[in-house]
Amino acid sequence: MTAEPLVTLTDATKTYSGRKVLREVSLALLPGETVVLTGANGSGKSTLLRALGGLTALTSGSRRVRQPGERRFAVGYAPDHLPKLKLTAREYLGHMAAIGGMEAAGRQERIERLLARMRLPGGIDRLRMHDYSKGMLQKINLLQAMLHGPDLLLLDEPLGGLDREAKQECERVLAELKSQGTTIVLASHEPVWRDDIADRRLAIAEGRIVRDERGGRPASDERPRWRLVQCELPEGAGPTAFAEWDGVLRTRPEEGGRMSYWVRSDRSDALLTALLAAGAAILSVQAGEGETDG
């Protein structure tokens, strides 16, 4: 028997200043599944996350939520960055817990449990958030999204600024949440998430879902191999050109109309052929493996 969707978008459209950022997106999230959402900058990833969480009003279309019994449906949202506030982590998390309606009696215990779960240092209160590194801010960002035990956890670039060890900690925490039945959607340009975490992979381009794949590959210790292709695009080609080409892991616009593409090694020749056929000038091709932090 197929589970009833937790959240369903039907023909969801969002327009900003006359520009359609989401275009008739229909999407259903199942309870307990983890979805990785990829796409170039400006493709609509962040807007789709907010639409799924009911954090932005749709211009047209609808959002439907399956209520979890007697209690209120809870959404946790971590934006792509936190402001550097003049608060300690505990002060900030305490304010966020109060804003979310958490009872004072259990508030501090919940915060301490989450800080320990992320293995943050005991002397964290010696600094204010405006003195934190980007990686430390990302950890606090993730914790505030987890405060209320969300049914739906939405993460916008959760690995940004984290070193390898911290990324592994993040994956460990997300695997625990997944095992507890939390539905997770994360927008990321990271080439690989552990396949025992990601059940489903979506790609978005120009406000539309262009790829929806279910099922993961068996977990492997092999580091992904890729090539970094740097090129000069032909006149008229925008920054999203070839972003959804099969095997493209990540893209980055450069100055002067240039683009960088990280592409799986086994698909790089096909991308190079397509770029040349479109009139692009190939500037360099570099081989690499592991995460595309460059």
TrEMBL record:
SUPFAM superfamilies documented for this protein: P-loop containing nucleoside triphosphate hydrolases
> From what organism does this protein derive?
Cohnella nanjingensis
- Its name, as the record gives it, is ATP-binding cassette domain-containing protein
> GO terms for molecular function, please?
ATP binding; ATP hydrolysis activity
**KW Transport (keyword) present:** yes
Mention any Pfam family matching this sequence: ABC_tran
Q: Cross-referenced PANTHER family, in alphabetical order? A: ABC TRANSPORTER ATP-BINDING PROTEIN ALBC-RELATED (PTHR42939:SF1)
* The entry's keywords: ATP-binding, Nucleotide-binding, Transport
Question: Which PROSITE patterns does the protein's record reference?
Answer: ABC_TRANSPORTER_1 (PS00211), ABC_TRANSPORTER_2 (PS50893)
Presence of the UniProt keyword Metal-binding in the record: no
Q: Which residues form the ABC transporter domain?
A: 7-231
